[in-house]
Write a structure and sequence with these properties.
TEII; AB_hydrolase_fold; 9 strands; Thioesterase; single chain; alpha/beta; Rossmann fold; Gramicidin S biosynthesis protein GrsT
Length: 349
């Protein structure tokens, strides 16, 4: 095998996800602490200009206020979860960031202002789209990841590619409202039900979405399809060892996810029947002392994030008070914890 053949073999192995010891990637990032130019925005990485008019009116400069000065030394790259969008408060998080942090969010095809595009149906296709959105930002400055729900799974895969293809690493990874990646969301039978008959699945799993489907015509049908398409990807658990971060991690769960239990002896017969049927879907809806867990991922599943970093600080696990699965990203308890943690990172630059 000559050198050309060796290079070709290395490239094949890297593309397949293998970490090849002799493969050297030049890191193009400036020294940490350097003030970075603002990120280039796009369809995949939107800014306020792409928001609906009503949402714009609450944000500068569209609300008449000056745009706050921003001299970032760190980029916080966010990946939203199922059926979410930039307009659904991620833009608020971006606006509230401290001056030395710039926040940007990858918007999925078919979501938000990309609603004319087809939904992507596999996690790897979404990761490809996300990597393309973040590539320049990762390659040219210090960055952290914030993955919400299925975005936590995507953050792992984007980071693995960033190491292999760009030679760069995040300085912090925040996993928001998802148990560790090795845990699927549904039972096998529940996931199959979602694939085969999403309408009846959501009648049990998320009655609010089912009611919207029944009452809102095309909008309701599209919303249910979005939820079904996205949530089946939350079943794509990733085995421990697939990738290990070199940075510290922060895993945050919402109180109203962790502390949600139904007391069977206090439930009506209808609620009791519904919750027991739902328990056949959710992987963690286990009965305990006449109660059934009714949340997203229970607290104990977050402990597994410790296995996803080799940094001495490990993964800190925090419960966010007064938050639910969707509103946690702008919950003041969470944002206070987030900005405090990022300050600790940037102070160490």
């Amino acid at each position: 095998m000559d050198f050309d053949d060796l290079d070709e073999e290395i490239e094949k192995r890297v593309e397949a996800g293998e970490e090849v010891a002799c493969k050297v990637i030049e890191n193009l990032q400036p020294v940490k602490g350097t003030t970075l130019p603002l990120m280039t925005r796009s369809l995949k990485l939107p800014d306020f200009s792409r928001l609906p008019a009503a949402k714009k009116k609450a944000l500068p400069p569209y609300n008449g206020q000056s745009v706050p000065p921003r001299e970032p030394v760190l980029r916080l790259l966010c990946i939203h979860g199922a059926a979410d969008s930039y307009a659904a408060d991620w833009c608020v998080l971006e606006n509230e960031a401290p001056p030395n942090v710039e926040v940007a969010m990858h918007e999925f095809p078919g979501h938000g202002h990309r609603d004319t595009e087809d939904f992507l149906t596999t996690l790897d296709d979404l990761v490809d789209d996300c990597f393309d959105a973040f590539k320049d930002a990762m390659n040219t400055g210090a960055f952290a990841f914030l993955g919400h729900s299925i975005g936590a799974l995507m953050a792992i895969k984007v980071a693995k590619r960033a190491r292999a293809e760009l030679g760069v690493e995040p300085v912090l990874v925040v996993m928001l409202e998802r148990g560790a990646a090795q845990h699927p969301l549904f039972t096998d039978s529940g996931a199959q039900w979602l694939r085969d008959d999403p309408v009846t699945f959501f009648e049990v799993w998320n009655p609010t979405i089912f009611k919207l489907y029944k009452s809102a015509g095309e909008v309701g049908a599209r919303t249910l399809k979005m939820w079904a398409t996205d949530q089946i990807m939350d079943q794509d658990a990733i085995e421990v060892g697939y990738h290990r971060f070199k940075c510290p991690m922060l895993a945050v769960g919402a109180e109203l996810s962790w502390r949600t239990w139904v007391k069977l002896d206090e439930a009506t017969p209808e609620v009791k029947e519904w919750i027991k049927t739902k328990a056949t879907i959710g992987a963690y809806m286990k009965e305990k002392e006449d109660k059934i867990f009714h949340g997203h991922f229970p607290e104990w599943t977050y402990e597994g994030w410790q296995e996803w970093t080799e940094h001495p600080a490990g993964c800190r696990i925090v419960e966010c008070k007064e938050a639910n699965h969707m509103d946690i990203k702008i919950n003041p308890h969470f944002t206070t914890e987030l900005w405090k943690t990022l300050k600790q990172v940037t102070d160490a630059f």
